[in-house]
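Subject: for your reference before the review

Hello V.,

The reviewers asked for a structural picture of the protein, and I figured it would be easier to keep everything in one thread rather than splitting it across files. Below is the amino acid sequence we used in the manuscript, unchanged from the supplementary table.
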Amino acid sequence: MEQLSIGSYQHWYYDAELALLRLYNDDTDQLYLKYIPIGTFSLTSETWMWSWFNDHSFEPNKDSTIVVREFGVENDYQKLTVGTFPADEFDCWEFAAISLVTLEGIGVYRAPAEKLQSYLLITTVLEEDSREVVHFNQAKVECKIHGRSRPAFVCQHLNLEHPKGFEEAFETYKEMKLGEDDDFQAWCDECEKVRIRNNGWNEYAEEFARIKLVCEYCYFELKGFNSL
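And here is what came back from the structure prediction:
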């Protein structure tokens, strides 16, 4: 907090595949950090899950936390050895503190979310011209609401005013890992009818849909609203 002022940033975004966290207010006031995922706390079920146990965690360095598990085995601390269990936020900060010392990090950041909080162990501060930051900023879209994130594509009809159905190129979920040639793609029920009548996407169907670019977060907001 004193050295990096991490509490002064209004927005955050992390790339799980790069294990890279961006804290920012705007493009001129930002901080890039490498992290190790410690675990997550579900506000719905009030349970903790260690990252080494989490199949939906894609960070390549998540198995680093096995060192914390081994420390728990050696000292008979059961909560460090079980993958998931009931907990509270005080427990989470204790797990973060133990991980900080055991893995020799420089700090901890809790990424706030509506239902799931992610605890990230900060290991390194990155320069903006570093290879990892340059790679992080490639193939991203800048959203006025959500900041920088992965691009997604939806038809012109999808909005947050009237549900219109939600058809996807493939089933998706938040923060899922995408293949190199994959994108989040969705369209409404009317576009699906036109697509079927034309035996797939052709010039007419594409003109009817008029696919537009949105950010990943907007995509899932549209999915939640239009899937009702």
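For the response letter, the relevant points are probably these. The longest strand covers residues 29-42. The helical segments are 66-75, 89-102, 131-137, 189-197, 203-209, 216-226.

Happy to draft the paragraph if you're swamped.

O.
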